[in-house]
Amino acid sequence: MSFNIIKEISVCKGKLYKLTHESTAVKGTMSLNLYVPSTASKGKIPTIYYLSGLTCTPDNCTEKGFIQFQADKFGFAVVYPDTSPRNVTWPEKANVDTNNWALGEGAGFYLNSDKFENFKMFDYICKELPESLSESEFGKTIDFTERKSVMGHSMGGMGALAFYLKGITNEISPYVSCSAFAPVANPTDCPWGVDAFNFYFKDGVKAGESLDPTLIIKSDAFKGKKLDILVTTGNSDPFFKSQLRTEKFIRAVEDNNIEGVSVNIEDGFDHSYFFVSTFVPQHCAFHAQKLGLI
Ligand SMILES: N[C@@H](CCC(=O)N[C@@H](CS)C(=O)NCC(=O)O)C(=O)O
């Protein structure tokens, strides 16, 4: 599948490509950004997928996350997908409130909806996008499908954790490592997640359980497992108490005797890209080590 290069921009020592392509999964045109580092690595360059949070486009983290410096330093590519399909035609009887920024466009929740045919972000991010990139010109030098890790913020942190865990149980192609900034860690138990699952699934929250990182990690399949996960959340995040449920995730990890999961609660940090960009170097070094780059 081919990608249109809308812009090629010099950033740090590499190139940023603003791309669009036709997606079969979401039945429409999708935008994404791809950063190709200035690396002369042996073999293909590994990839980190960055999954953004509510209201974001591919540009928020590209412009405010400062991952590109780290990508040059360690030698990985970065894919910044969009957070939902765009220009969606909603079924009239669905009565969708398009002013609600936590549902619909910009709020795809990385799931496959069984109510809205365009909202298949799970299939798009886990399958179609890596495969399409791999078949493109970029796939000649970059490994989008195997030597790959995932990182995300807020709703995207939920997606990153859920995808990584589903890779461990071989439901999807595995990721080497996972990190999350202020993830929505227990979405079946917070307003954003409950509203989203009720909106996207016929069976509502029940159907959302299979995407809930806290519920997945406390299942028997993960008992005593050794994982590669890094989570950072700020305790001045306005969503810390109401939405993120970091403490429930920590308890699930401890109760199930899981190793290799670090959860750091950082004093004074909020939910913004000032927070994300502060911890980007630490998260990138973590992934670089797991990807065998250092
Ligand atoms: N728009 C919401 C906030 C939504 C929000 O904080 N989104 C986060 C992800 S959950 C984000 O990354 N926003 C875009 C940005 O900061 O650039 C509000 O008015 O409170």
From TrEMBL:
Q: Which Pfam families match?
A: Esterase (PF00756)
- Show the SUPFAM superfamilies listed in the entry: alpha/beta-Hydrolases (SSF53474)
Coiled-coil annotated residue ranges, if any: none
Q: Where is the active site?
A: S154 (charge relay system), D237 (charge relay system), H271 (charge relay system)
Q: Top enzyme class of this protein?
A: hydrolase
Q: Which GO terms describe its cellular component?
A: cytosol
Q: Recorded E.C. number(s)? A: 3.1.2.12
Alphabetically sorted, this entry's keywords are: Hydrolase, Serine esterase
Example of a GO biological process term: formaldehyde catabolic process
Protein's UniProt keywords contain Cell membrane: no
Q: Which GO molecular function annotations are given, in alphabetical order?
A: carboxylic ester hydrolase activity; S-formylglutathione hydrolase activity
**Would you indicate the residue range of the signal peptide?**
none
Gene3D superfamilies associated with the record: alpha/beta hydrolase
Q: Tell me which domain of life the UniProt entry assigns to the organism this sequence originates from.
A: Eukaryota
Q: Which InterPro entries match?
A: AB_hydrolase_fold (IPR029058), Esterase-like (IPR000801), S-formylglutathione_hydrol (IPR014186)
- Protein family according to the UniProt entry: Belongs to the esterase D family.
The protein in question is named S-formylglutathione hydrolase
* Biological source species: Hanseniaspora guilliermondii
